[in-house]
Write a structure and sequence with these properties.
The complex is a heterodimer. Chain A is an all-alpha fold. Chain A has one domain. Chain A has 6 helices and no strands. In chain A, helix 2 packs across helix 3. By secondary structure, chain B is of the alpha/beta class. Chain B has a domain of about 200 residues: TIM Barrel (Alpha-Beta Barrel). The longest helix of chain B has 28 residues. The chains are: A mainly alpha, B alpha/beta. At the A-B interface, helix 1, helix 2, helix 5 and helix 6 of A face helix 3, helix 5 and helix 11 of B.
Chain lengths: ~120, ~350
């Protein structure tokens, strides 16, 4: 969507038709579109199968919070009330996401490369 | 007597229309698209659904539970508060964006090339913190290569003087420069960890601008097979500033979204974003009907995900700096319901 007024665009579209990002499974479905060019039904089914949930569950924050926590996929922070200090976020979570979805994530690959032991 | 429903004009101003008037607006918007873009009209079911969406006093409208789509953004945040990384965090944490996009405030590949080291550093830090797919976006912006901003003769000055051959040669030269810059920036940002590159507002300077985007995508795809690549269009119709440029044997001037999408997919994008312009003198219902009629063949025949541009002045969203949520939400819902979109 376009840049500009956040309320009139990002928030309105988000509430009207968005999957909910890391609050649900929107980021995971987005990864399959971005990385593999999968159209929406195919991408949703792929992610649902990998997670062992229904396609309907992918936009449900109640279902997805437990799934994300169990699999270490990261979630909203909310001062540690949603995602605790012992749970992965950011790059930490992307290691689990790459393994779950079976797709390379550039920042994960970069981290592995740059932290590899040097001769 | 028919009830008058509060609704919007394409400039965002409030107006009131009866259900009968809304239906007339929608049918007229469909007819305008059919005439202009030479596409099939929407079916009666779709028209009926649009009438229902707009014949409502509700402050907000939304898709059915389970029908949600992926949302992507042409640059996240206003860069007014905190840092650009904070902008990405706000979008991920508070707006629940499905992907986020960092951008330089000049938002063109040419100026970014000169500050690529700084952009890489910020992106590297962002990748530590962001969980959602995080990419980088800018415009091909071919006009930047012309005098007085660049080294190439200005075709906007040459064309009115009738110096057609020189204007065309200048555009062809600019294409090659733009492609080099786009590929340079994309490669630099891949080193910093991006998940995708967004060539936004492609075609803004016409067919040569779109050609630069397509040629750049082709080279980026060959070099980075797993990188997400997105093309977002500048407008519904590729202007023929050159007029004779082709990609894969297809003349670019005059292409509408379906043909734009096919070439973008051929070049190697993983997401295509059509942009349908808004007429500020017509109602939002008229504009949404026209948008969906033009975009439908693109969505029906898509081989890659389609994220319809739905921002200020495109995709049925009013051309106002503060688009009203009642209008945006109706445009959003209508597009998802009728086009079976992959995203917005």
């Amino acid at each position: 969507m376009g840049a500009g007024d956040v309320y009139g665009q990002a928030i309105s579209h988000g509430v009207a038709s968005g999957m909910g990002g890391i609050r649900a499974a929107g980021d995971l479905v987005a990864r399959m579109q971005i990385t593999r060019g999968m159209r929406l039904p195919q991408a949703k089914q792929y992610v649902a199968d990998k997670l062992g949930v229904s396609v309907m569950d992918l936009s449900d924050p109640v279902v997805m919070l437990d799934v994300r926590k169990e699999r270490g996929l990261g979630a909203a922070l909310e001062s540690g009330e949603i995602t605790g200090i012992d749970e992965p976020i950011g790059l930490e979570a992307k290691f689990h996401i790459a393994e779950l979805l079976g797709v390379p994530i550039n920042s994960v690959e970069r981290f592995r490369r740059i932290t590899a032991p040097r001769a | 007597m028919d009830t008058a429903f509060p609704t919007r004009m394409g400039d965002g101003s409030l107006t009131r229309l009866t259900r009968t008037e809304i239906e007339a607006e929608i049918r007229d918007g469909v007819a305008a698209a059919v005439k202009r873009a030479k596409v099939e009209p929407l079916g009666e079911d779709a028209i009926g659904h649009l009438i229902d969406i707009f014949s409502s006093r509700s402050r907000f409208s939304a898709v059915d539970i389970g029908d949600e789509v992926v949302l992507s953004y042409d640059g996240c945040g206003s860069q007014d508060m905190g840092t650009r990384i904070n902008d990405l965090q706000y979008y991920e944490q508070y707006l629940c964006a499905d992907s986020v996009e960092m951008y330089h405030h000049d938002y063109s590949f040419k100026p970014v090339k000169t500050v690529i080291d700084f952009e890489q550093t910020v992106m590297r830090q962002a990748q530590f913190l962001i969980t959602a797919p995080c990419g980088y976006g800018a415009m091909p912006d071919l006009g930047r290569y012309t005098v007085p901003d660049g080294p190439i003769a200005n075709w906007s000055q040459l064309l009115p003087m009738g110096r057609i051959d020189e204007a065309r040669a200048a555009q062809e030269e600019a294409v090659e420069m733009a492609v080099e810059d786009i590929v340079f920036v994309a490669a630099g940002m891949v080193e910093a960890g991006i998940d995708f590159i967004d060539l936004d507002t492609s075609g803004a300077a016409g067919d040569a601008d779109f050609l630069a985007a397509l040629k750049a995508v082709e080279r980026i795809r060959a070099r980075f097979p797993d990188l997400g690549i997105q093309i977002g269009m500048a407008s519904e119709f590729v202007l023929g500033m050159h007029g004779e440029l082709e990609y894969d044997g297809v003349r670019l001037a005059g292409l509408w979204p379906r043909e734009q999408m096919k070439l973008a997919a051929k070049a190697g994008v993983t997401i295509f974003g059509p942009a349908i312009n808004v007429n500020t003198g017509k109602s939002v219902a008229w504009n949404v009907a026209r948008t969906l009629t033009i975009a439908k063949p693109c969505c029906d025949e898509a081989t890659v995900p389609v994220h319809l541009n739905g921002g200020m002045g495109v995709g049925g969203v009013p051309m106002h700096i503060l688009p009203p949520g009642d209008a945006t939400s109706r445009a959003s819902r209508a597009a998802v319901d009728i086009l079976q979109l992959d995203g917005l």
